[in-house]
Specification:
The chain is an alpha+beta fold. The protein has helices at 2-29, 35-38, 41-72, 82-97, 104-109, 113-121, 129-135, 141-149, 201-205, and strands at 154-156, 173-180, 192-200, 213-218. The chain has a four-stranded antiparallel beta sheet with strand order 1-2-3-4.
């Protein structure tokens, strides 16, 4: 898990260093820009971020590569040395705190559990989530179990966070249950946010669920 997490951050830093090189090459090949254009928000942001990345990026690559290779050299079931882990993330956090702009490297340096999950799930080509989970090595069990038992936007008696893009008039109703789009349940799609069931307020308070409205929350 430590090796995969480091690889996620390393790939992010490496990708943005390459983008920085392309950006600087493009700017150098262009004629001087209008001063007004030079203050464009995107140009200012990229110039600032890529300039800082040119300084902190190569040392970060070295730190992340060393940590990843060390993790790969150990049995996967071995626990990580917490003091070394803390020292490793202190270096990453120090660089991250200097980053003003919210690019991928800044987010991934803090640790990206979602990206780690995607990498682990991609290890198997099985058709279903269940088959992929069953095929995983024991070293990944603790992470997978934490992921499976974590809150995934399913809520009894409420909707949190609010699902967007719906205009149904639900006055006089309260939410019985909301079920977010969930990759583990096979209900997550690009435009699907979830489902919610609403009962008349009086009925819900009296424990009656014979009348209900099903709302499908979707962007399309």
């Amino acid at each position: 898990i430590a090796a995969i997490e480091a690889d996620v951050a390393l790939a992010s830093v490496t990708r943005e260093l390459r983008q920085a090189e392309d950006f600087n090459t493009m700017r150098a090949s262009q004629p001087p820009v209008d001063p007004t254009l030079a203050q464009n928000r995107v140009i200012v942001s990229k110039t600032r971020h890529y300039g800082l990345l040119a300084e902190v990026g190569p040392p970060l690559q070295a730190v992340l590569t060393q940590w990843r290779d060390t993790a790969r050299s150990r049995p996967g079931e071995n626990p990580v040395d917490r003091s070394r882990l803390a020292a490793h993330f202190a270096v990453r956090q120090g660089a991250r705190e200097r980053m003003v702009d919210d690019y991928g490297a800044r987010r991934d340096l803090a640790g990206n559990a979602e990206a780690v999950w995607r990498e682990i799930m991609a290890m198997s080509s099985a058709a279903t989530v269940r088959e992929r989970l069953c095929a995983l090595a024991p070293a990944f069990r603790s992470f997978v179990e934490a992921r499976v038992t974590d809150w995934r936007r399913h809520r009894l008696y409420g909707v949190e966070p609010e699902f967007p893009n719906n205009t149904e008039d639900l006055s006089g109703h309260d939410c019985l249950i909301s079920i977010g789009g969930d990759a583990l349940l096979g209900t997550e799609t690009e435009h699907h946010y979830g489902l919610s069931v609403w009962c008349p307020t009086g009925g819900l308070r009296g424990g009656r669920f014979d009348r209900a409205r099903l709302v499908y929350h979707s962007a399309v």
